[in-house]
Amino acid sequence: MGAIIVADVGGTQMRVAALPRDGIQPIKHQIAPTQAPKGSPFERFVTLINAVWPDEAVEAISVATAGPLDPKTGTILSAPNIPEWINFPLGERLAEHFGVPVYVGNDANLALLGEWRYGAGQGHHDLIYITISTGIGGGVISGDQLLLGHRGLAAELGHITVLPGGPLCPCGQRGHLEAISSGPAIARFVNEILAEGEASILEPGPGLSARDVAKAARRGDPLAKAAYTRAGEFLGQAMADFLHIFNPSIVIFGGGVSRSGSLIFDPLKDALYKQVMDPGYVKNLILTTTKLGDDAGLIGAQVQAQIRLSSL
Amino acid sequence: MGAIIVADVGGTQMRVAALPRDGIQPIKHQIAPTQAPKGSPFERFVTLINAVWPDEAVEAISVATAGPLDPKTGTILSAPNIPEWINFPLGERLAEHFGVPVYVGNDANLALLGEWRYGAGQGHHDLIYITISTGIGGGVISGDQLLLGHRGLAAELGHITVLPGGPLCPCGQRGHLEAISSGPAIARFVNEILAEGEASILEPGPGLSARDVAKAARRGDPLAKAAYTRAGEFLGQAMADFLHIFNPSIVIFGGGVSRSGSLIFDPLKDALYKQVMDPGYVKNLILTTTKLGDDAGLIGAQVQAQIRLSSL
Predict the structure, then answer these.
(1) Top-level CATH class of B3-112+294-310?
(2) Where is average pLDDT lowest: B28-37, B95-104, B112-121, B164-173?
(3) Is the ipTM here above 0.85?
(4) Are B257 and B176 in contact (CB under 8 A)?
(5) Do B147 and A246 touch (CB under 8 A)?
């Protein structure tokens, strides 16, 4: 039985593990910071892969990473917080170096693959995954098939317009879901209202985080509660759109903001159930959170390798 | 070589044809009104099928029809303008009567299948179809697979919120694309502005149609032009969302409003190209109109039969 090398490369850290061909119990596992004084991110990544290289024959390397990328060629178009990786042929470079097939996938897509096979989405055929943290990312499986699109750029569920002319999104457009309901967007909204003189136990400032706002909301601060209600209501509006578009049987939420519980989910569900156009869309619909936590990317990379190897 | 009976059942008329198993040249073809003084729509449908029944062995009956339906069971949940068909087990009733497999599909989905195999979408793997007429309907093919969703209710592309709190949609929700950019929505907008006293060559009234507005726009009427610009801009905003969600290589437009040409497509394209978040989404993207015209439903029903029969 061979092994798969799986990796989850983020802006802050890289995680690499060797897994048995058909399982998810690591044979070896290593973590390292993505940026460091010595060597390029690619060089450190190669070192990390060598460190977990197992005695078993390696059948493939499978990588989850952020940002727009081409899953067919394994080229990273741009990686958030890894400025070296612009139009970077990661798949090709790794395949040359290690002499095995390399598969590269978007981290949100792969997190969904992981949840589908090993986590909250087992047994479902039509799933939506939405991760709400610094940004808002998405993944969709429809009819047991991952939605990729022509160039692998599909499922950018954070980048739909929920409020025309609304707040500026990090992508440069206005009024996107990510510009209203992500963690930084929640903090920005509070800062803006504080600047207008609204009373609150929160202090304005660039260091204010969605987590601070959640703490204040739990202590009863009306502004903090209103900020989460606004974010949740727009998420609910967008979720109604996504139900009409995809008609899933389950929606899985991940990311830091999803851990704020009823603060975000109560207004989300209220808006969603009000705005869905037919009860058929919510009949037996499951709304839940991720089960795999920090391992979703690694496990999803394993599922990606299993799917790609079985289609050879 | 056997034959397929294909049908396109609308609120106004029913079209039925017998086609060779692997072709789209009709052996026989019949049209009849859906509503008539004598007999139920189902009885007239059966009569029409009998009228085209060929000498060849019939391998399947494949039906395109409007409205929410379950493609797995062939049950119509509700059919616009056919009040008799609420929770109507059309597939089961036809299979009992004729003793052959029956496949039932949403007309927009099947129009896309037709365009994909025989029309404007040939050779593409990731397609969006959007039909703009009395309502706004959609179909999506992603990775060569029709998007159906858990209950077959997916791809309702007219029912996403493009303007929170906006005009009332026929579905009961507010601010949906269909409530702003469909034919009746364009006429309603003109009527509302005329009621405010705006000057125009158009006369207000319930009989005013999007076609009347298009004629006035071509004669230079500013209100009529503004009405199409508004509809086109919101379509462009929604299309940017759909590109971020599906990353297709082609978008095919159908329906009466799409025949108004640059009146709707100029503002649509302006808004789309401004609101897309990365040039990768529009690189080599094809925006076009349907090729099959009124035959799209019948031809799509044939493709549905071919796909379902080949997966047996």
Answers:
(1) alpha beta
(2) B28-37
(3) yes
(4) no
(5) yes
Tokens of B102: 């029956």
pLDDT of B100 reads 97
Residues in chain B: 312
Kindly state the percentage of chain B with pLDDT values over 90.
88
Chain A residues whose C-beta sits inside 8 Å of any chain B C-beta: 68, 77, 125-126, 142-143, 145, 147-157, 159-164, 169, 171-173, 176, 237, 240-241, 244-249, 275, 277-278, 280-281, 283
Structure-token pair, residue A263:
């603060």
Rounded to two decimals, the pTM is 0.95
Q: Where are the domains of chain B?
A: 3-112+294-310, 123-290
A78 or A141: which carries more pLDDT confidence? Answer: A141
Confidence of residue A29 (pLDDT cuts 50, 70, 90): very high
User: Pick from A108, A142, A67: which is nearest to A254 by CA?
Assistant: A108
B123-290 fold: Nucleotidyltransferase; domain 5 (3.30.420)
Contact criterion met (CB < 8 Å) for B280 and A154: no
- Interior CA angle at A220 toward A229 and A199, to 5°? 85
CB A224 within 8 A of CB A200: yes
Contact: B280, A153; criterion CB under 8 Å:
yes
- Bigger pLDDT: B311 vs A247: A247
- Using an 8 Å CB-CB cutoff, list chain B residues near A169: 277
Amino acid at A228: Y
